[in-house]
Amino acid sequence: MKFGILFRPQDPPDAANIVERWQEILAAAKVAEQAGFDGLFVPEHHMMPDGYPPSPWAALGALAAITERVEIGTTIHLLPFEHPIHVAEHAAMVDVISGGRLRLGCGLGNFPTEFELYGIDPATQVSRFEECIEVVQRAWAGEELDFHGRHFDIKGRITPRPVGAELWLGAMSEPGVRRAARFGCPWPTDPLHNIDVMKHWAEVYRSAGEEYGTSQKLGVNLLRDGWVADSLADVERTWWPHVRADHWFYFKEVPRWVADREPFLQDVTEEDDFKFDRHRIDRLIVGSPDDCIASIRAFQEAIDPDYLILTFRMAAGPDHQRELECIRRFGSEVIPAFRTQDQPLLSRTDP
C-alpha cells in the first residue's frame, strides 16, 4: 500500500497570507518526500474566499520541479469545468516534466455556484463529465480524434502524449463508483464516510469491474483525515477543532451522506454535535503511532486499498511547524509498519 498527502492550500478567512501558505505547502512537500511518502496531491474548488486553489496545473508543475520520486496529482480536479483537450494537454505536460509521475484524479463537481461561474447547467454534469473522460482517455492514447458528442466537437490529436499518467475518477455514490469501474479507472474515495460505507462502495466498484471486464485496471485510493501525536487526547486538543469545522461544512453543503450506514449522523444538526470520541471511530486515522497503525489495518481488512492519502493540516490549522512534525513522525513511526522488504524507505535527513 502506498501513502500520500492531500494538501489543503487555504488561508481563512480571506486568503491574506496565501503566498506564505503556498511556500509552506512546498516546504511540506519536500519533507514528505524525504519522510517516505509516495504521493502528493492538491484539490480544486472555485470562488472560495480563503484561497482554495481554483486550478491544479501551476501547483502540479511546482511539485514536479521540487521533487524527484513521489507521484503528484489531484483529488479532485473538477473535469466538467475545463475543455477536455485542455485537460489532456495540461496533464500531459505535467506528466512529461515530472517523468511520468502524474495521477490525475477527476470529479464532476458538487456546488451549484461553481456551475454558474462557468455557465454550465448542473443537469448536464454527468453527460459532460463522461464525454470529458472519454476524450481525455482517447487523447492520451494518441488517437486522431473525430469526436462529436452532446457537448464537444473535436478533431485532431494532442502532442506530446503523457508518458506515465493515470486517470482516476472520484465518486461519492454507487453510480459514481460504477462509472469509475466502467471507464477502467482507479477510484479515489472521499475522506468523510465511515468504514462501512467505504466497504460497501468498494464492493460495488469491484463487482462492476468484473461486470465490465476492467478489474485489472481498478484500484481503491482511500482518502482520510489524520494526525499522529502522543495520544488521542493530544489529537483532540490540537487537531480536532480544525477537522470538525471542515467536516461540518461538507455535511451541511454536500447532502450525499449514506444515512442508513451512518446512524449517529442522523442526530447531527450543528457543528458541536460532531463528537471526537464518536466521529473518529472507523473514519479518522488519528492518535499515537500504534493507534494510527491499528486504524489503517482495520481499513486494510475491510477495503484493501492500494493507496492511503491523508490530509494532516486543515484550512485553519494546526500550524506549519506542527504539520512538519506530524509528517516526519508519520513517516518514521507509522509507514514502516506497512513496508515489505522489497519496499524500503528512503534514507531521510531533515532539510
Report what the structure shows:
The protein is an alpha/beta fold and 351 residues long. It has 12 helices and 11 strands. Strands 1, 2, 3, 4, 7, 8, 9, 10 and 11 form a 9-stranded parallel sheet that branches. The protein has a two-stranded antiparallel ribbon with strand order 5-6. Helix 2 runs parallel beside helix 3. The chain starts with a strand and ends in an 18-residue tail after the last helix. The C terminus is likely disordered.
The third-level CATH topology is TIM Barrel
**Overall mean pLDDT score?**
93
Main sheet makeup: 9 strands, parallel
Sum up the overall morphology in one term: globular
The secondary structure category is alpha/beta
In CATH terms, the superfamily is Luciferase-like domain
Tell me what portion of residues adopts beta-strand conformation: 15-25%
Give the H and E element order. EHEHEHEHHEEEHEHEHHHEHEH
Give Rg in angstroms: 20 Å
Please tell me the CATH architecture by its name.
Answer: Alpha-Beta Barrel
Q: Which range best describes the helical content: under 10%, 10-25%, 25-40%, 40-55%, 55-70% or over 70%?
A: 40-55%
Low-confidence regions: 342-351
Number of discrete domains: 1
CATH hierarchy class name: Alpha Beta
Number of helical stretches of at least 4 residues: 12
